[in-house]
């Protein structure tokens, strides 16, 4: 829950698990953005834009003060500068203001899809092409934007440019993915939707989270089992000797993790929640039956009172003197 704090990041057993805490924290605070959307969508969207601009200012201020690189590769010979590396980890890589912006975009994307779920939206094909082009260019910019920068220390860029890439590349990637999701959901993706909906992706879809959890273990495991010095010969050699073995080992470990840990606990959670909900529904059903019984009893009493008519009693009195009968009826 708290291993994204600077005081705890140096004491993690598995360093990549910081994101589990970050994801949980963002999940807990997500209602702060969903509730404004419920009452006023404009207010909710304005809140998100305000936070994105605010966090951008914080990120630029951090880069201006510490002169940090755009990514880890940008450290080059300063990679052994532990103090600067710690600043980058705690103030950029793990920082909430860098990590929550893609999460916000995901929240607003999900809200848009939920509000338009039963609606058929019509969008001109020109706008669809432009959005696909923008999404493709944004994704390429996020991946290849630092191509010249990573060639060596001689290609160093300014702190402003580093801060811009560090912050806006995450937002650009999130927007590109958001458009792909929306386009596939609204049938604006054509063959791309058919390709992404193929059944061959389903096993990997089920294992991606487990692969994330186990990949940091499989990488040193593969290198330890190899035992040979790590030498770079070519990209093809690196793929064959390192990437493919790491992928296979990670996939195997993820499968075992999913079968023996994730799926049993998920099934147990569903069973426990089902039992709790069943007991709650039974309790509500019992209360409803009692209320119905009381209502029927009250209706029966009312009907009995309506059908009851008091009997008329007739009394006859006789005057002894004039023998005149007086009838009193009450």
TrEMBL record:
Signal peptide: none annotated. This is Acyl_transf_3 domain-containing protein. The keyword Methyltransferase does not apply. Residues 11-262 form the Acyltransferase domain. Keywords: Membrane, Transmembrane, Transmembrane helix. The chain crosses the membrane at residues 18-38, 45-63, 91-113, 125-147, 167-185, 206-223, 243-261. It comes from the Eukaryota. It comes from Enterobius vermicularis (Human pinworm). GO terms for molecular function: acyltransferase activity, transferring groups other than amino-acyl groups.
């Amino acid at each position: 829950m708290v291993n994204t704090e600077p005081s705890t990041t140096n004491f993690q057993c598995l360093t990549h698990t910081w994101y589990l805490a970050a994801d949980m924290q963002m999940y807990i605070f997500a209602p702060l953005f969903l509730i404004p959307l419920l009452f006023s969508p404009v207010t909710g969207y304005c809140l998100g834009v305000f936070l994105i601009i605010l966090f951008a200012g914080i990120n630029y201020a951090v880069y201006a003060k510490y002169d940090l690189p755009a990514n880890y590769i940008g450290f080059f010979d300063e990679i052994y500068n532990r103090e600067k590396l710690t600043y980058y980890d705690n103030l950029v890589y793990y920082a909430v203001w860098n990590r929550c912006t893609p999460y916000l975009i995901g929240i607003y994307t999900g809200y848009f899809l939920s509000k338009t779920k039963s609606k058929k939206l019509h969008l001109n094909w020109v706008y669809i092409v432009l959005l696909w082009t923008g999404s493709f260019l944004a994704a390429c910019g996020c991946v290849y934007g630092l191509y010249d920068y990573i060639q060596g220390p001689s290609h160093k860029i300014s702190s402003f440019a580093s801060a811009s890439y560090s912050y806006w590349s995450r937002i650009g990637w999130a927007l590109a993915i958001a458009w792909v999701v929306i386009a596939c959901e609204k049938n604006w993706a054509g063959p791309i939707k058919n390709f992404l909906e193929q059944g061959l992706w389903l096993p990997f879809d089920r294992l991606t989270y487990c692969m994330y959890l186990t990949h940091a273990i499989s990488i040193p495991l593969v290198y330890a089992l190899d035992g040979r010095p790590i030498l770079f010969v070519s990209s093809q050699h690196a793929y064959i000797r390192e990437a493919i073995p790491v992928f296979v080992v990670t996939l195997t470990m993820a499968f075992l993790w999913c079968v023996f840990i994730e799926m049993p606990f998920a099934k147990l959670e569903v069973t426990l929640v089902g039992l709790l909900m069943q007991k709650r529904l039974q309790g509500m059903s019992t209360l409803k039956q009692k209320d119905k019984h009381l209502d029927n009893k009250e209706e029966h009493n009312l009907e009995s009172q309506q059908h009851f008519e008091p009997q008329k009693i007739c009394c006859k009195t006789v005057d002894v003197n004039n023998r005149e009968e007086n009838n009193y009826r009450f």
